[in-house]
Amino acid sequence: MRKTVMLTKKIGETPLEALTDWKARHPRYKDVPASYAGRLDPMASGKLLVLLGEECKRQTEYTKLDKTYEIEVLLDIGSDTGDILGIVEASKCETTITKIAAKAVLQTEVGTHTIPYPIYSSKTVNGKPLFLYALEGTLDTIELPTHEETIHRIVLKGLRTVSNTTLKERIETLLALAPVSTEPSKALGADFRIVDVRRSWAKVFEAERQYEILKLKVECGSGTYMRSLAGRIGKRLGTRALALSIRRTKIKR
Questions:
Q1: Is CATH 3.30.2350.10 the classification given to domain 67-251?
Q2: Where in the chain is the domain with CATH 3.30.2350.10?
Q3: 3-state secondary structure (DSSP) of residue 96
Q4: CA 196 to chain centre
């Protein structure tokens, strides 16, 4: 009997759906307890390590493992979630950047930093996840918790410019993959607010313009949010930014 299994989560698939699909194809594990050694956001894809049976008791050890991601950072558009599945807003500026300037900015993110948790995350405060405070509009009633994030290395893999039309086509394709949430705890943000999200994107696409996208390879410690990293990169460049795509390519064991 396996102790762990490495799944590949698809865009728009929840970790639970990925696990359920695997168990359906491996019926001997149907009733075996399972836990995740680090989740992935709905619109992220890639490696998902699952612990099985007695190995679940070692979850804390596994969640400390370093990880590698490939991400795309879209400049001049930000969202309240840090990725495309949020309420978006475009910057008035139209950022242009050279590879040399991009590499200099990326280098400032290398190291260990104390970072606030994303407001749309499952981190709990007083027994309630942050995303519920965000949806209720009650974030001002709590102190936003922080944690340490360590980035070992960031490599600029590419820098390209896309047209408004090209970006629109891609966003529409990705949003069509967004999951439907049936969890009672997420009733307030049913279906990830997809109607409002699409409406905000439609407003962004009213203006004819171009956007720059950075393609990055990120080697980091556990608990590092790529959505937060994308936003920080944008801020350092004097604009907004979000994670257009997130793919976990490696979990170091």
A1: yes
A2: 67-251
A3: coil
A4: 19
The token pair at 219 is 């080697």
Distances (CA, A) of 152 to 102, 113, 245: 17, 11, 20
The pTM (predicted TM-score) of the whole model is 0.93
Number of helical (H) and strand (E) elements in the chain, helices listed first: 7, 12
pLDDT at 183 over 70: no
Lowest model confidence (mean pLDDT) among 20-24, 125-129, 179-183: 179-183
Whether residue 185 has pLDDT greater than 60: no
Residue type, 5: V
pLDDT in tens, 147-167: 999 999 999 999 999 999 999
Report residue 195 as tokens: 């109607």
Q: Please, which residues have CB within 8 angstroms of residue 211's CB and are 6 or more apart in sequence?
A: 74, 75, 76, 77, 161, 162, 164, 167
3-state DSSP assignment of residue 126: coil
